[in-house]
Amino acid sequence: MIHPKTLTFLSQLATNNNRDWFHAHKQQHDEARENVLAFVAQIKEELCKIDPGLPTDLDPKDCVMRIYRDIRFSKDKTPYKTNFGVGISPDGKNFNGPGYYLHIHPKQSFLAGGCWMPEANILKAIRQEIDYNGADFHTVIDRHSFKNYFGYLDAEDKLKAAPKGYSVDHPDISYLQLKSFTVSHPLSPDDLQGADATKKVVKGFSELYPFIAFLRRAIG
């Protein structure tokens, strides 16, 4: 589970997002990161029992993202993220296709997964799989437990017109127009701090697994 001190550190960092404060509280960061790493190790161990596509020797350190922001091309010059991001895929946080994501934040935690803004060849393959195997796609996304937990696919990134090669009256045009194939579910601080925190996150990822499997099949 996530320790309250970890969320307290993130809250304080949001208020004091500068290098002097961070360096003075580096030990708190390191302790918070170790807490996240231990939590990820527990999640990964259980998730590997559900998803055989994940290597059992996946190192949690390869899954937890750095807290340092890349500010080279950003107007926001604050140097640190105010959350811990966790990416779980065969390549850890380096998503080369579908994967699971956990966002740890004092007020806006969530779990998510799928393919976010995939490269053109991967996007093309996913659209083709939906076109060819729409029944399989709907078996996954229309499953009662999946819809009850995640609702609908995220639709922020979407074409205004039909993608090349598809008709505007295609029965799944609303999905073919997507540029990302992801879902998400909010988590409260209590969800992450309770004794059953690992179980709750793994439950969410287990609901996500059939969607991940469909996307993996699509891209081969």
Verbal overview:
- The protein contains 9 helices and 4 strands.
- With about 220 residues, the protein is an alpha+beta fold.
- It has a single domain, classed as BirA Bifunctional Protein, domain 2 (2-Layer Sandwich), CATH 3.30.930.
- Strands 1-2-3-4 form a 4-stranded antiparallel sheet.
- Strand 2 and strand 3 form a beta hairpin.
- Helix 1 packs across helix 3, helix 4 crosses helix 5 and helix 4 packs across helix 9.
- The model has no long low-confidence stretch (mean pLDDT about 95).
Gist?
The chain has 220 residues and is an alpha+beta fold.
What portion of residues is helical? Answer: 40-55%
Rg from alpha-carbon coordinates = 19 Å
Q: How would you spell out the order of helices and strands?
A: HHHEEEHHHHEHH
Number of structural units classed as domains? 1
CATH architecture: 2-Layer Sandwich
* Mean model confidence by pLDDT: 96
Remind me, CATH topology?
BirA Bifunctional Protein, domain 2
What is the overall number of helices? 9
**Largest sheet at a glance?**
4 strands, antiparallel
Distance between the termini: 35 Å
Determine the strand fraction and express it as a percent band.
Answer: 5-15%
Biggest sheet strand order reads 1-2-3-4
What is the subunit arrangement here? single chain
Residue runs with pLDDT of under 50 for 5 or more positions: none
CATH class: Alpha Beta
- Counting DSSP E segments of at least 2 residues, the number of strands comes to 4
Shape: globular
